[in-house]
Amino acid sequence: MLLAADVGNTHTVFGVFEGEALQASFRIGSTQGRTSDEWGATLLQLIRFRKIEPLAVDAAVLCSVVPPLTGVIVEAIQRYFSIEPLIIGPGVKTGMSILYDPPQDVGADRIVNGVAAYHRARGAAIVVDFGTATTFDAISSKGEYLGGAIAPGIQIGADSLFARAARLPRVEIRRPPAVVGRSTVESIQSGLYFGYASLVNGMISRIRAEMEPFSNGPIRVFVTGGLGGALSADLEGIEAVVPDLTLEGLRLIHQKNRN
Fold this sequence. Notes:
Blueprint: E1 2-7, E2 11-18, E3 21-29, H1 36-49, E4 59-64, H2 67-81, E5 86-87, H3 108-121, E6 125-130, E7 133-139, E8 145-152, H4 154-164, H5 184-211, E9 220-225, H6 228-231, E10 240-241, H7 245-257
């Protein structure tokens, strides 16, 4: 079985694959003060809770955008599973050309998402990943990573608003009944939810317009990340919401490198 780990700024997501099937996934807060023993013990407990025998895990792959956490989690996997994980980075086969300047500046998770999206689309694709930042990634019909865009995540926008406007209450981010709010809470929810949906729709439209002259066939859009599903009803032209897209990409890259 394969243990896949996506180390993000807010959460770290683990998945356990048996062949191509994702058997279980876990989301843990990316707390930098946690030791490798704490990471390892927590992961063992979660795996056992899902009725998976830890000794059955015989391979691991990891991508990280938090360098201080990378070594800690690698050590946890080495110590508690006796496995040397494959770390996504320079020198690892992804099957994807990186047309970015410089290539090493692209977050590993963005390349992993691109690999998974291209595998699903078998052609040009756009990936929207709702994380601490919301990232947009463009994949050509030849399977090349073209580049993308980075915007502040919706939670960052909300936190900044509440921190800087003393009289505005903190609200749950969810779809209000109408765009025109009838209360302060509904007005804030409208600005956050519909405003962010409009941002995402506008970016998808602009990226698609730049890609279409050079694409053979349709450009498919995949959404992943924490709030992707919550906003999907108001996102236009979406092929699919794939919560585990990054884990799927990690499995595919591990498969390319396992020999």
